[in-house]
Amino acid sequence: MKNLLEKLFPICRSITGNGVRKSLDIIKEYTKTDLNIIEIPSGKKVYDWEIPKEWNINTAWVKDSNGNKIIDFDLNNLHLVSYSIPIDDYMSLDELKKHIHTIPDKPDWIPYRTSYYNEDWGFCISHKHLEELEVFDGVSNSGEYHVYIDSTLEQGNLSYGELFLPGKSNEEILLSTYICHPSMANDNLSGPVLLSELAKNLAKEDLHYSYRFLFIPETIGAIAWLSENENKLNNIVGGLVATCIGDSGVIQYKRSRQIYSMIDNIVERVLKDTAAIEEYDIKDFEPLGSDERQFCSPGINLPIGCLTRTPYGEFEEYHTSADNLDFVTEYNLQASFDILKEIIYYLEYNKTYINVNPKCEPNLGRRGLYDLIGAGDRNKSIPLYKWILNYSDGKNSLIDISNKCDIKFEHILEAAKDLEMKDLIK
Ligand code: ZN
Known about the structure:
Layout: H1 2-8, H2 18-31, E1 36-41, E2 45-46, E3 49-50, E4 54-63, E5 69-72, E6 87-91, H3 93-97, E7 100-101, E8 123-124, H4 127-136, E9 145-154, E10 157-165, E11 172-178, H5 185-202, E12 210-216, H6 220-228, E13 236-242, E14 251-254, H7 262-273, E15 280-283, H8 292-295, E16 304-308, H9 330-349, E17 352-354, H10 382-391, E18 393-397, H11 398-405, H12 409-421
Parallel strand pairs: 7-8, 11-12, 11-13, 13-16, 14-15
Antiparallel strand pairs: 1-10, 2-3, 4-5, 4-9, 6-9, 10-12, 14-16, 17-18
Zinc ion binds at residues 181, 187-188, 312, 319.
């Protein structure tokens, strides 16, 4: 995963353009799957929005009057405001400063800024860098700066990646992440890297559910996909948005808008069962955050939650050059992946049974499920049998029962196997 992260990191991505296509090509190669790269033309209406013009960038810089590059996109793609329109002009530092963004509180970091829906241009530099420019202005140069942005903003396409892995069931799990940020590791490459690894793994498995992976530009990509795929929504029984998931913060799960849907109950169970290894936090849905805002909008209302470590905006490196390759560690990516893999395992093994003797408790002793002599190992399972038998009414799944009695899913699963072997549940 770290290798994939390092490969994707230098690419200048935005909500459209060749950076997205190049990233999708790399993901396709990594996952060894038939990831579909889909293009939606600029101007197309998607619900209340319109697909924007396609933006591509060749180079951008500012030179002082001696011809020295004092800001250079080629050194760090965060230096340019994403979606900057082309410009080739000369101006004073005062004029230029109207288009320069810094973070005074974090003087060494370069901010990340965008101007998707307002045709403008700008540069982002560290605050220290700006102070240096102010010191040297009029000293080592005549005060005129050459501003050059070689970009295009024209009719084109919005590109996204979609991978469908069919299972035995038509019921689908939707796993979505976004691929629209330039060189930042946690927000946003940790999500695509994690889902790429999962796709690569699941592509080799025999699956119960069908799995649909989306690698889309944030917001506009989710809106576009939903608008174009309403006919697929009925099959979606659960899903996750994965974002900001490679830092060292605790795992956080934000429930879907439905709050106690299957996926919400499964993730809660996984996090409780792995709590000895991983701390966690569970929050109710709120309409802030990433693409769960679209997936859980009231007219869509899919059972899709959001899995993160430190959520967007809550880590100080967020949307700055400090969200770099050191900020995301192999260890944390792997630990997040282990949780995600466990969620899939729980999904795949969860079942809903019916108690075939629902009138009073069945006689367990007669079936060898009750150690009549006393406290043998077998008797540890008796409370589990009682929970499973009582709630196996066709409405509560094993995960629901596991959450009700707060006992690890693996123990419930084993006890259910015993009961099924003795034809007490089906
Ligand atoms: Zn972001």
